[in-house]
């Protein structure tokens, strides 16, 4: 049951951050910071609402999932892809180990992996192999001319 709650937290963190960023025009950093602060303060003020495992892990999982929600609407524009990315992030978060130490932060690395995996899904499973907008932006960024 704890893992299901963490997965729901991951989905909410990604989608709410994206919504506040894109539809309320608050910007990615402000949306992530504001929502993460609200969730963290709630569990700081009310530590006995849920069991200790969830009280400790929900704020951290939400912060990491909010990194997923900071994605540009040019890369991922539909909420269904954000939900999938939030689920992938949550699965990585639940199964994290010491593997991510030294990679610039486990939450950011996990969010990056979740977004890349989500943007690759259409490439892997579509018969036409149509390239997504996110992949085109990534390819343009990789092969841009250096000044």
Q: Report the β-strand fraction as a percent range.
A: under 5%
Helix/strand order: HHHHHH
Query: Tally the helices: what do you get?
Result: 6
C-alpha geometry: globular
Overall residue-averaged pLDDT value: 84
Q: What's the story with the biggest beta sheet?
A: none
What structural class do helix, strand and pairing data support?
Answer: mainly alpha
Number of strands: 0
Distance between the termini: 52 Å
* Poorly predicted parts: none
Helix content: over 70%
Report the radius of gyration as a whole number of Å. Answer: 16 Å
Number of domains: 1
Compose a concise summary of this entry.
With 147 residues, this protein is mainly α. It is 70% helix and 0% strand. The model has no long low-confidence stretch (mean pLDDT 84).
Keywords:
single chain, mainly alpha
Overall description:
There is one protein chain. The chain is mainly alpha-helical and 147 residues long. The chain has one domain (2-142). It contains 6 helices and no strands. The longest helix is centred in the first third of the chain and has 21 residues, at 2-22. The N and C termini lie far apart (52 Å).
List the helices and strands and how they pair.
Layout: H1 2-22, H2 28-45, H3 52-69, H4 79-94, H5 106-125, H6 133-142
Helix pairs in contact: 1-2, 1-3, 1-4, 2-3, 3-4, 3-5, 4-5
């Amino acid at each position: 049951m704890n893992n299901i709650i963490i997965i729901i937290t991951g989905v909410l963190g990604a989608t709410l951050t994206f919504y506040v960023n894109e539809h309320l025009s608050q910007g990615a950093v402000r949306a992530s910071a504001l929502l993460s602060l609200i969730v963290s303060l709630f569990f700081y003020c009310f530590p006995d609402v849920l069991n200790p495992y969830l009280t400790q892990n929900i704020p951290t999982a939400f912060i990491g999932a909010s990194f997923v929600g900071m994605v540009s609407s040019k890369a991922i524009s539909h909420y269904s892809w954000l939900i999938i990315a939030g689920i992938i992030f949550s699965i990585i978060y639940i199964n994290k180990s010491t593997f991510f130490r030294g990679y610039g932060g486990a939450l950011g690395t996990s969010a990056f992996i979740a977004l890349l995996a989500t943007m690759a899904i259409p490439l892997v499973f579509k018969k036409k192999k149509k390239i997504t907008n996110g992949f085109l932006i990534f390819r343009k960024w990789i092969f841009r001319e250096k000044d």
